Amino acid sequence: MKIALVTGAYKGLGFEWCRQLGKLGYKVLLTARKTENAIESANILIAEGLEIYPIVMEVTDHAQIGEVVRWVEEKFGKLDLLINNAGINSGTRARGNKELQNKNLSLESLEPNEVLNMININAIAPIIVARHFRYLLAKSESGKIINIGSWLGSISIKKSGGNYSYAVSKSALNMMNKALAYDLAEDNIISVVVNPGWVQTDMGGGKAQFTTEQSVLNLIENVVNKIELNDSGKFLNFDGTEHPW
Ligand SMILES: NC(=O)c1ccc[n+]([C@@H]2O[C@H](COP(=O)([O-])OP(=O)(O)OC[C@H]3O[C@@H](n4cnc5c(N)ncnc54)[C@H](OP(=O)(O)O)[C@@H]3O)[C@@H](O)[C@H]2O)c1
User: Fold this and answer.
1) Rounded to the nearest whole angstrom, what is the distance from the C-alpha of residue 62 to the centroid of ligand 1?
2) Which pLDDT score, from 0 to 100, does residue 94 have?
3) Residue whose CA lies nearest to ligand 1 atom number 20
4) Mind listing the domains of the chain with CATH numbers?
5) CB 82 within 8 A of CB 126
6) pLDDT over 90 at 37, yes or no
7) What is the pLDDT of residue 98?
8) Whether the CB of 11 sits within 6 Å of ligand 1
9) pLDDT tens digits for range 87-106
10) Does ligand 1 come within 6 angstroms of the Cβ of 136?
11) Mean pLDDT along residues 22-41
């Protein structure tokens, strides 16, 4: 019996993680900020015959994360796989408000609190969630954390200005994870950052290269199924190769 938890999972990549992990036989905790979103999406997968549990979890709410940890401990006594998927970019943060979007994008309009907010959600929250679940991941025979990063977090391949806050938040996630990996090695927990590619979701848009199905399949086959303890701390591409920092 394997247990997985996916953050930000009622749509997009997170939802597809739940579906594919469920099909592989995992019992999956589908977490979302809003109760109705979690239940509605979980019901779709439950109707497909998968064992899915809708859970409310805002990744910046430490008390709520603590409650989820206690629930998982009582019900399953361990966690095998944590997918730190929840994230925002300038577009999803602004939800159509161009002025707000610009506060994350352009040099002229850059707003410090917007940058900090994105770092909080995309880089700090995954590490805090991991800290909360460390104890339960350590009880797994193969505890793994997959943090969803981005090629936009790669400093060496950046070739244009702008997009300050998202890019910085995903670069910060790489460094956060490097430190986390050393700390979690004591408990034999593997933690990596992955680039899922450009994916057709609300964030990626309709013209993106991959469907969610392709992206998650790549990541399960090339990363989840293959990583070992000596890979912990790495930034990996969807094909399993190391991504340039
Ligand atoms: N799509 C791409 O091309 C692409 C490329 C590289 C990396 N990524 C990364 O992949 C991950 C998934 O993105 P996606 O493309 O599937 O985008 P998406 O459809 O916008 O999904 C993002 C999910 O994160 C949730 N979320 C945001 N802030 C949250 C918070 N504070 N607490 C809990 N949940 C929160 C959202 O919930 P709400 O609707 O309630 O806000 C939503 O369910 C993100 O980390 C993203 O940065 C995506």
Assistant:
1) 19
2) 78
3) 203
4) 3-237 (3.40.50.720)
5) no
6) yes
7) 86
8) yes
9) 999 888 878 888 888 877 88
10) no
11) 98
**Contact (Cβ atoms closer than 8 angstroms) between residue 200 and residue 211:** yes
Is the pLDDT at 71 greater than 90, yes or no?
Answer: yes
Rounded CA separation 204/150 (Å): 11
Nearest by Cα to 81 from 178, 223, 234: 223
Q: Which of 84, 203, 219, 237 to mutate to test the pocket of ligand 1 (most atoms within 8 A of CB)?
A: 203
Burial class (CB in 10 A: 0-12, 13-18, 19+), 230: exposed
**What is the rounded distance in angstroms from the CA atom of residue 131 to the CA atom of residue 68?**
13
Q: Quick check: CB of 83 below 6 Å from ligand 1? A: no
Q: Is the dihedral of CA 58, 110, 204, 235 positive or negative?
A: negative
Query: From the CA of 200, how far away is ligand 1's center (Å)?
Result: 12
Ligand 1 atom 1 nearest Cα: 204
User: Burial level of 4, CB count in 10 A (0-12/13-18/19+)?
Assistant: buried
